[in-house]
Amino acid sequence: MDDINLHYRFLNWRRRIREIREVGAVRYRERFKRMLRDGDVLSYQGNSDEVGCYVAPRPLSKGNCYFEVTIVDTGVRGMIAVGLVPQYYKLDHQPGWLPHSVAYHADDGKLYNGNTVGQQFGPKCNRGDRIGCGIYLESLILFHTPALYPAVGMHSLGEEVQLDLQAEWGMEEDGLMMVDSHEDEWGRLHDVRVTGTLLEYVGKGKSIVDVGLAQSRLPLNTRCHYYELEITDAGEKCYIALGLARRNYPKNRHPGWSRGSIAYHADDGKLFQGSGVGDAFGPRCFEGDVMGCGIMFPRDYILDSGDDSDDGDLEVWPKQRRVQNELYMNDEDEEEDGEEKEGSKVMVFFTRNGKVVGRREVAVPAGGFYPTIGMMSTGEKIRVDLHPLSG
């Protein structure tokens, strides 16, 4: 009997090993469409009307943080893109076109950072040129960075590249082009300087209209429903407000003061909801405190973004715009538009140092609720994480 039990144990062990190998094979499988891979060479196999895309089987990591692509043939138009994308990126889009992806495009030398409109970044690339892409080790250690996979896109006949996923970067300064991925997370910046994840107030700080405002490029949604800030310097008066606001919220109004907004203010612990008069809500916040804001969405929630995108399984996002950095500009005060229709109601909640302070039911403005931060006194500095629950 003991021999039979031992035999069945052995069979179960072999079966388990086989299952683990099968799961691992699926997890680390490369993905490509309209591409042919022959060893380390990738070649375009489409008809020039459709994008071909390759996604590597493993993401960049602290042990393997860099890869390179050498252009063997530019083909008809040289529309070759090299960058980083999420694991299940849509293969009929060039890297850099969709949210959470970034890529350098050889044909125009532009950087595409989650947008079909690129920004001038570097020189155009030709046959024989080598394009590298990597992530600084410090960014992987300090922040919870979502997994990013090496990707190559092509879009015209004859294009061919040599892929090296094990390349080593020698840290040479010549030819180095850096991407500040954090500033592109902000749709509007007024009297706020961004350095990585650090936001610093640079306004006058003399009156209630001297507001420094930072508004996220994307609204909260069912996939990214919460964000946080840490007060690294309270400045003179800690006039720091964390909340949500409609798109194009007036730049000279603290979050919570005008319609279509709600915010928790650090200096007095009050909650402001579309009014200059706040309600007692929670404790005051000081240097070192972490403030958070999120939305509890109903299961059937759909964001009315007004976007005609047909990206299928992707979340509905508003159309992206170039970052407006209004630093040091003296534009006239913005006047609020007429009434906008409001969407369904959601529960907005706020936290302090990881504990829920309170919640409030609020109607979502048309286009969604955008993470919006205000500062108003000299010396205020905060560190923001728009995606604390990812990675």
Automatic annotation (TrEMBL):
SMART domains: SPRY. PROSITE patterns: B302_SPRY (PS50188). Residues 1-220 form the B30.2/SPRY domain. Pfam families: SPRY. This is SPRY domain containing 3. It comes from Oncorhynchus kisutch. The lineage of its organism: Eukaryota, Metazoa, Chordata, Craniata, Vertebrata.
